């Protein structure tokens, strides 16, 4: 068993305009918020208590997730008045947790199918201070590299470089021993990637890399968010409960449609992400577009690569 911290406080600048009205972890992917996909993965791994470390638009999370009973776990909330960085957020959230179990930390904009349970076991078997999930990518130049020795111990944290010494990169899921978190200063802006992890390695602490080459995606841009949704949709489209679709509507491209939507006659939809409680009028044609929760799209509207909500109609890059 373990407890967890989910870092969901970022501004989502790379995802604008999608994040103008919603925090990025609450954007839907295949019908569910990114955060919900992560909660389901945490539950599967035996995480029984999870703290959401929130900041930007923090008030949106609580009405949706409540106390976590719907997911069979306990969900708590740590709200940062000012962003504290990844390390500061972890330390702040840990104040709500005990100190007798491993702490799993998730980055809020990552979809991963790796075995969190196996990562926790690897961590405890090695009596590690911190264990990072590492994956190998074809071209590591856009990422910081994380070389390891033959035993899996991390030997360095390297910034982006033209000739990477390894293709192993930090995949954004960590298992901490509680005493390590307690050494992060409380109420201080700290980056675990740039400060905490390198300092632990330099001081000889046991930082390990758990390597599992499974599905992994950083959904931090509109193009990546759409890809992540398509990847999780089986077939031409997926619709959630309570949605009605006219018999002659044509829906393709791995489109995801939220709950309680109404799709009118003669509608054509391709490669779209559609939120909950959306109405799309007869004859509308939408492609590569994000339709926010509660939006009414008028009959006959034609949009490609747009963000549509009750208030906004803006182009996006997908």
From TrEMBL:
Instruction: Enumerate the SUPFAM superfamilies for this protein.
Output: Nucleotide-diphospho-sugar transferases
Report domain Nucleotidyl transferase positions: 4-232
Q: Which UniProt keywords apply?
A: Nucleotidyltransferase, Transferase
The keyword Nucleotidyltransferase belongs to this UniProt entry's keyword annotation: yes
Coiled-coil ranges from the UniProt annotation: none
One GO MF annotation is: nucleotidyltransferase activity
List, alphabetically, the InterPro entries matched: GMPPB_C, Mannose-1P_guanyltransferase, NTP_transferase_dom, Nucleotide-diphossugar_trans
Q: Which residues form the Mannose-1-phosphate guanyltransferase C-terminal domain?
A: 241-299
The answer to whether keyword Transferase applies is: yes
- Family annotation (PANTHER family): SUGAR-1-PHOSPHATE GUANYL TRANSFERASE
Q: Which family does it belong to?
A: Belongs to the transferase hexapeptide repeat family.
Indicate what this protein is called per its UniProt record: Mannose-1-phosphate guanylyltransferase
């Amino acid at each position: 068993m373990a407890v967890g911290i989910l870092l969901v406080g970022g501004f989502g600048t790379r995802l604008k305009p999608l994040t103008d009205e919603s925090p990025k972890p609450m954007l839907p992917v295949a019908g569910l918020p990114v955060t919900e996909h992560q909660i389901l993965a945490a539950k599967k791994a035996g995480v029984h208590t999870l703290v959401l470390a929130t900041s930007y638009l923090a008030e949106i999370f609580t009405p949706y997730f409540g106390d976590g009973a719907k997911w069979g776990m306990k969900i708590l909330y740590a709200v940062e008045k000012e962003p504290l960085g990844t390390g500061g957020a972890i330390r702040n959230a840990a104040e709500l947790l005990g100190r007798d179990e491993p702490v799993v930390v998730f980055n809020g904009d990552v979809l991963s199918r790796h075995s969190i349970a196996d990562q926790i076991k690897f961590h405890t078997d090695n009596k590690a201070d911190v264990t990072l999930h590492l994956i190998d990518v074809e071209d590591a130049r856009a990422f910081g590299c994380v070389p390891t020795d033959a035993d899996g111990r991390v030997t360095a944290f390297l910034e982006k470089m033209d000739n990477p010494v390894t293709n192993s990169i930090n995949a954004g899921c960590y298992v901490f021993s509680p005493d390590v978190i307690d050494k992060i200063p409380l109420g201080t802006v700290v980056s675990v990637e740039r400060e905490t992890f390198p300092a632990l390695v330099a001081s000889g602490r046991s930082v390990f890399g758990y390597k599992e080459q499974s599905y992994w995606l950083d959904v931090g841009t509109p193009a990546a968010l759409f890809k992540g949704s398509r990847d999780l949709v089986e077939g031409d489209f997926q619709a959630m409960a309570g949605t009605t679709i006219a018999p002659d509507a044509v829906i393709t491209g791995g489109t995801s449609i939220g709950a309680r939507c109404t799709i009118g006659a003669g509608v054509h939809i391709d490669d779209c992400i559609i939120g909950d409680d959306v109405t799309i009028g007869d004859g509308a044609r939408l492609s590569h577009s994000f339709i926010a929760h509660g939006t009414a799209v008028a009959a006959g509207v034609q949009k490609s690569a747009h963000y549509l909500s009750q208030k906004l109609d803006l182009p996006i890059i997908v």
